Amino acid sequence: MATSFFKYASISVALAVGLYATLLGLLTTSTFQSHVVYLHAIQMTWFKNLNIPETFGFLKNQVTPFSITTSDSERLYAWHILPIELYRKHELPLVAEPTGFVSDITSRLAFQLLRDDPDARLILHMHGAGGTVGSGYRVPNYRALSAGQPGRIHVLTFDYRGFGRSTGTPSESGLILDALAVVDWAMNVAGIPPSRILIFAQSMGTAVSIAVSQHLALQSPPVVFAGTILVAPFVDVATLVATYRVAGTVPILSPLTRIPLLFSYLQRFIRDKWLSKDNIARYVRANEANGERYRLTIIHAEDDYDIPWHHTPTIFWHAVNASVSVGISYDDLALRKLESKVDLGAAGSVMEWRTDNGVIREEILKTGLHDVIMGYPVITMAVMRSFEAADPSFTC
């Protein structure tokens, strides 16, 4: 009996090792790696029609589905979401319009309310991996984003290439082109200047937003928005895979960190690196050199089991270090935090780093998980702080 037990146990262990080795082999291929990193095949809205936003809880024509074409001819599926108070004021003519996807958004009243209002603000929403614009906690997130000024704050959210109804296949360079196309639409089609645009990003979207922000900050003349809010960012893909656990329990590559040579070898196969720590440093450094005003808010929950919260202090340090001409060590910044951060008890803590040009704010919440946090009041407050900092009259 004991012999049989050890026999079956040995077979089970061999099978598990074989499956794990197969997984590692698949992860070195670009196609499988793309599906693991972006999860774009997992829509989570299979039984709902994205062209009928009302089934996601919106009012009739509060959301306008349309598409944005990228510089390499991909078509990105997008939603323009009206703030509730503005919708209330124009409810009758909005309800009278036909519903569904529109080929020419400029012909719709919702678009005109955005374009023609000099007090309108626009949030460009860059969601995380997996799903679509209508998945999971993203719909409550849109409401939280505009809740502070429900008559002025519009939201534009979109699916990256290969996600949902958008064409193409995701890649690092491709997603950057997608975000640039959305920025171009906001500034040149909707006519909203950067000072009235805010970037909101979560999870994978933070890497996209940071890459695009540093790209625009390095242009001549530079383009800098009213603010950038990053929720649950990660340092880079290599660091993320070293810590990532499925559902917070099942490790993927973290066991291999104990074998540095093997782990370093596998890192060579990472196609899309998403070096957020370097990109955020370049963004801050460019703004400091150009004298451009900027505002970064980085938010993370301690109970986030998808992307461990310790990624945020590292991102925060890279941003702060870039703002100081002589630099600051991670340990020295940690000491500054002990002196300056505000302890909010069960709500977490806040640390702000201010320069002559910018504000870099780190908010660590005790709870919020990876997605639930997106509907929290802390998101609404971050939006309001950013817009008010760019224009103090905004909240009047």
From TrEMBL:
The keyword Transmembrane appears for this protein: yes
Spans traversing the lipid bilayer: 6-27
Superkingdom of this protein's organism: Eukaryota
Claim: Transmembrane is one of the keywords in the record: yes
SUPFAM superfamilies in alphabetical order: alpha/beta-Hydrolases (SSF53474)
InterPro entries: AB_hydrolase_1, AB_hydrolase_fold
Coiled-coil parts of chain: none
Protein known as: Alpha/Beta hydrolase protein
Organism: Amylocarpus encephaloides
